TrEMBL record:
Transmembrane segments: none
One Gene Ontology term, aspect cellular component: membrane
Domain Neurotransmitter-gated ion-channel ligand-binding: 2-65
Species for this entry: Plectus sambesii
Top-level taxon in the UniProt lineage: Eukaryota
Protein name as annotated: Neurotransmitter-gated ion-channel ligand-binding domain-containing protein
An MF annotation (GO) of this entry: extracellular ligand-gated monoatomic ion channel activity
């Protein structure tokens, strides 16, 4: 399954030139198409959307690693 990941810069928190690092505030978006979460609305009384608890939906395992 293809998972697209995007990182959005929110703000620059700190720049430390002597120690050569920066601190950023970021948000991470994950997008994928799950074939198990689609249906034909005609077969379900015209229902086009539902709310599903997050713990019942597959979510990819993502690990953030900081490297230089």
């Amino acid at each position: 399954m293809l998972v697209k990941i995007g990182i959005n810069l929110i703000s620059l928190l700190d720049v430390n030139e002597p120690q050569e690092y920066i601190k950023l505030a970021v948000s991470c978006d994950q997008r994928w198409h799950d074939d198990f979460l689609i249906w034909d609305p005609e077969k379900f009384n015209g229902t086009t959307s539902i709310t599903v608890p997050a713990d019942m939906v597959w979510i990819p395992d993502v690990t953030v690693v900081s490297t230089v």
